[in-house]
Design a protein that fits this description.
By secondary structure, the protein is an alpha/beta fold. About 45% of the residues lie in helices and about 10% in strands. The longest helix has about 35 residues, at about 400-435. The protein binds pyridoxal-5'-phosphate.
Length: about 550
């Protein structure tokens, strides 16, 4: 009887046998199957809609500790436990209320927000078709669509001539880019391409992919590779350097200028120093188009010039900012992106696609040959199998979602979203400047900004002080206040603003804790942002002001 705790009496209709199994599989030839699909689909969508209506804040108050205590059973039941209808009810009643309502316009802390409802339909179609774009034999037209939509976005970034796209759009031998899991994998793939091109096969050496790092460094007479990016570079670059054997310490952070862009003087100095040591190779320079923490854009045109002069791979991490290219008013902010060797863009950020979708674009359609792999049963030489030049094997047909979304939204639709984000962030920055309690820390260039509680008298004190220890002490107190404030506001559950720690040009020796807002939800208005500031002022005055 040792098993009594885990074995529940099973309901008679709950049995795993062939008869029941056949019922749960999709069978196009059976019309009843369609009715079942529709019935449950409706239930799910209505149920989730009600969830979002009920839980306007972040999440219902239930501690993570309580939740983890409710999810500790590790035994898989021998027989079925629940019918689909009960599973759905349970998801809607017991799980969804403890998920995060990222669709709320008061949820402005992260790069995840409401998505257009048609994205849910498109994602469902992708699941229902269940194509695998690793190879043509399991995807057919979906592979063709991927090449087409990749060419469309490539054109948005690089704007090469019609002949170029005619030649490449459906060319089985060339690759303008690829869908990947997210921005992290896109950055990894970019550095993988750069690495393999830099350490290509040559007289007696078969290339780094075949022989490994030690042999490559020996063949090329170097001891070390570095990747240069501003201090605001995304940590996925360090991960990538780790995976690729370059070493994450060799992602070298370059200082920022006063607008939080990479300091060009500092970058040139670093390149010259590394170049004067003939045993070090500068593998890539990464320009950021929409830094995760501040939304700022590096001077891409200048970076392109520097990379061309020194023959360095120029990668642009536009995971966040890429879709700014849709906006006639603001696309100039990304000027120079067309000169990048490779560009990362996330689909699940400002393309408003469901989780998860990343993309990598290459200027040279032959670049990705450097990472090609073939196998006899799939991915045969000369085929259009998309799995030949990607890190992933099997993967979903995300291109279908993006292609349909582009048709439904048009450039105009995306541009309205981009403009709303940038303009609301600018208005929000003005509002912060007007309030004595706050200090705007990073001026928004796109739709992300950071600020902190720092009352006017303290700001004056900081500006006037010449004593470094005094300043440090004041900033430490402010850091504690802002850290507490963010936590208290999050726990209250009416709104969500995130927090990060920045080391800025203005305070080069100190880490400054800031509040961070990302304005991407079109329902987030200036009035809502004012309410969020009001709440922060109230929390500060009633609970934290005496820390100063
Ligand atoms: C979000 C982001 C990434 C990482 O993307 P994931 O999709 O989270 O893997 C990389 N770079 C920048 C600039 C980002 O904003």
């Amino acid at each position: 009887m040792l098993n009594t705790i885990t074995t529940r009496p099973t309901r008679p209709e709950l049995v795993a046998d062939w008869e029941h199994l056949f019922k749960v599989f999709i069978r196009p030839e059976d019309d009843d199957c369609k009715a079942v699909l529709i019935k449950y689909m409706e239930r799910i969508l209505f149920g989730l809609h009600d969830f979002q209506k009920t839980y306007v804040g972040i999440t219902e108050a239930k501690s993570l500790k309580d939740l983890s205590e409710a999810f500790i059973n590790t035994i898989i039941s021998e027989n079925p436990e629940k019918k689909l209808a009960d599973v759905i009810t349970c998801l809607i009643k017991e799980i969804a209320p403890h998920a995060v309502n990222v669709a709320s316009p008061y949820f402005v802390g992260h790069m995840t927000s409401a998505i257009p409802f048609f994205m849910v339909h498109l994602k469902t179609i992708v699941a229902a078709l269940n194509q695998n774009v690793v190879k043509l034999e399991t995807s057919k037209v979906l592979s063709v669509i991927e090449k087409q939509v990749i060419a469309k976005i490539h054109r948005l970034i690089y704007n090469k001539d019609q002949k170029f796209y005619d030649e490449n759009v459906q060319n089985a031998d060339t690759t303008l880019g690829t869908f990947v899991e997210g921005g992290t994998t896109a950055n990894l793939t970019a550095l993988w391409v750069a690495r393999n091109k830099r350490f290509a096969p040559k007289n007696g050496f078969s290339g780094i992919e075949a022989e490994g790092l030690a042999a490559a460094y020996k063949a090329y007479g170097i001891d070390r590779c570095v990747v240069l990016v501003s201090r605001l570079g995304h940590y996925s670059l360090r991960k990538s350097a780790g995976v690729l054997g370059i070493g994450n310490r060799n992602v070298i952070p370059i200082e920022l200028d006063e607008r939080n862009k990479v300091d060009l003087g500092g970058l040139k100095k670093a390149i010259n120093e590394f170049k004067s040591d003939s045993r070090t190779c500068v593998l890539a320079v990464v320009g950021i188009a929409g830094a995760t923490e501040t939304g700022t854009v590096d001077p891409l045109e200048d970076l392109a010039d520097i990379c061309r002069e020194h023959k360095i791979h120029f990668h642009v991490d536009a995971a966040w900012g890429g879709p700014t290219l849709f906006s006639q008013q603001y696309k100039h902010l990304l000027k120079g992106i067309d000169r990048a060797d490779s560009v990362t863009i996330d689909g699940h950020k400002q393309f408003y696609m469901p989780m998860s979708c990343g993309m990598l674009y290459l200027s040279d359609p032959a670049s990705m040959d450097a990472i090609a792999y073939y196998a006899n049963y799939v991915n045969r030489m000369g085929s259009v199998d998309l799995g030949i030049k990607t890190l992933a094997g099997s993967r979903e047909a995300n291109s279908l979602i993006l292609d349909c979304a582009l048709k439904i939204m048009g450039k105009k639709g995306y541009s309205l979203l981009i403009n709303h984000g940038i303009e609301t962030a600018a208005a929000f920055a003005d509002e912060i400047r007007k309030r004595d309690t706050f200090e705007l820390v990073s001026v928004p260039e796109l739709n992300i900004l950071t600020y902190r509680i720092c009352p006017a008298d303290i700001r004056e004190k900081l500006a006037a002080s010449t004593n470094e220890n005094d300043r440090r002490r004041i900033n430490e107190t402010l850091n504690n206040i802002n850290r507490d404030l963010q936590r208290i506001q999050r726990e209250a559950g009416n709104s969500f603003v995130s927090r990060t720690t920045l080391r800025l040009c203005r305070h080069p020796e100190e880490d400054i804790v800031v509040l961070r807002c990302v304005i991407m939800n079109p329902m987030t208005t200036l009035d809502i942002l004012r309410e969020i500031l009001d709440e922060q002022e109230t929390i500060f005055k009633s609970r934290l002001a005496d820390m100063l």
